[in-house]
Write a structure and sequence with these properties.
Structural class: alpha/beta
Helix content: 25-40%
Strand order of the largest sheet: 1-16-6-5-2-3-4
CATH topology of the largest domain: Rossmann fold
Number of strands: 16
Shape: globular
Order of helices and strands: EHEHEHEHEHEHEEEHEEHHEHEHEEHE
Number of domains: 2
CATH class of the largest domain: Alpha Beta
Distance between the termini: 15 Å
CATH architecture of the largest domain: 3-Layer(aba) Sandwich
Strand content: 15-25%
Largest sheet: 7 strands, mixed
Radius of gyration: 20 Å
Length: 366
């Protein structure tokens, strides 16, 4: 696969002020009717993009906000989520809320199944555009949503534009920690194939290295037992030494437990989702002929942490049909002093045009 063969090698993308300029210019056209899908939780990023779109589109915008329900949430989280909901309800667009239970009574992870069943009721042909905001959605929910909307748009007789957007802030992410469940799971729609011969494939694990995720990553490695690991480090990064600091913090895992050859380190621009997307696709292309005579190759992705990079890994998983494994959060813990100190100036935003009129010549070939 050379660059021209990649589905999104020449993808339309916008960053920071460009995102809001695109929203203002593109969605101001009266022909656009938009469905916005995002989170309705405690995260202050959950309403930033919705607010911008609502100001531009007004009644031409309908928002579907997803409440991820986990058992016994912290009262402060509930209070903050309620505040975000109240602000959303005061916007000029129409809004509906979906309550999605992440766990069953026996603590089985059912968030992906529940959101998949709920969004099947959407008639996407009511809209010209669908914007999915990943800012305040967990990967166990956002990945199935994007997969379903994308595949539905591809199979629709009506041309529907699908957009991915995110508000990212590493400091804010570092102020939110979680208590994970005790088992590894794959994401709905991105499961490891359970077919004859699949178990013989050489498994390459590509985890996104993130602060505070050591226990989770160790658990995934022990569960999947990959033949090789290519850890993904952020570089370029706002902090030029961030990748080095992460490598040092994971030194025992990298050298002893996972036995990673330093030549297998992967570096990706933490502010450009398309960078890691292209890198993953190239890695897969290079491995296929090497392992073809030995049963084949399988890439397994674990997008933990940085939300910009998670978009790129999602795009790669959509195109390459790669399994995505993670550990679901049972509960969240937040350092509210850091959250409250966050300024709108500190955020990074991104928009990726995933499917639609911008790629009409590729519509039936994708």
């Amino acid at each position: 696969m050379n660059g021209r063969d990649m589905r999104w090698n020449f993808c339309i993308e916008h960053y920071n002020n460009e995102v809001f300029q695109f929203y203002s210019q593109y969605f101001s056209e009266k022909r656009h009717r938009c469905l916005f899908i995002g989170g309705a939780g405690f995260d202050p990023r959950s309403i930033i993009l919705l607010r911008e779109l609502s100001l531009v589109m007004g009644e031409r915008l309908h928002a579907m906000l997803i409440r991820e329900e986990r058992p016994d949430p912290d009262p402060e989280l509930v209070k903050r989520a309620k505040k975000n909901v109240e602000e959303a309800n005061n916007m000029s667009c129409s809004i509906e809320f979906l309550e999605i239970n992440i766990f069953a009574d026996d603590n089985a992870v059912v968030g992906g199944i529940n959101i998949s069943n709920s969004i099947k009721n959407i008639d996407i042909t009511d809209y010209t555009d669908i914007v999915i905001d990943l800012s305040a959605l967990s990967v166990g929910v956002s990945f199935p949503v994007v997969s379903y909307i994308y595949e539905s748009a591809k199979s629709s007789n009506k041309l529907i534009n699908v957009h991915l957007s995110v508000v990212s802030n590493d400091e804010l992410d570092s102020s939110i920690s979680s208590t994970p469940i005790d088992r590894v799971t794959d994401i709905r729609g991105f499961s490891i194939p359970n077919l004859m011969g699949e178990g013989e494939k050489a498994k390459l694990w590509l985890p996104l290295m993130s602060t505070g995720k050591k226990g989770i990553l160790n658990r995934i490695h022990a569960s999947e037992e990959p033949h090789d690991t290519c850890p993904i480090f952020p570089f370029p990064s706002e902090d030029p030494k961030k990748g080095d600091k992460l490598a040092i913090s994971f030194l025992t895992e990298l050298e002893s437990d996972w036995e990673v050859d330093p030549r297998n380190f992967v570096f990706a621009d933490e502010k450009r989702p398309l960078d890691i997307y292209r890198t993953i696709m190239r890695i897969d292309e290079e491995r296929q002929p090497v392992f073809e005579t030995f049963g084949g190759s399988m890439l397994i992705l674990s997008p933990l942490g940085n939300r910009m990079l998670a978009i790129g890994m999602l795009m790669a998983a959509l195109e390459g049909k790669y399994p995505v494994v993670y550990v679901e959060a049972l509960e969240y813990h937040v350092d509210w002093s850091k959250v409250d100190a966050m300024s709108i100036k500190d955020i990074e935003t991104a928009h990726v045009w995933l499917y639609g009129e911008a790629y009409q010549t590729d519509r039936r070939n994708s």
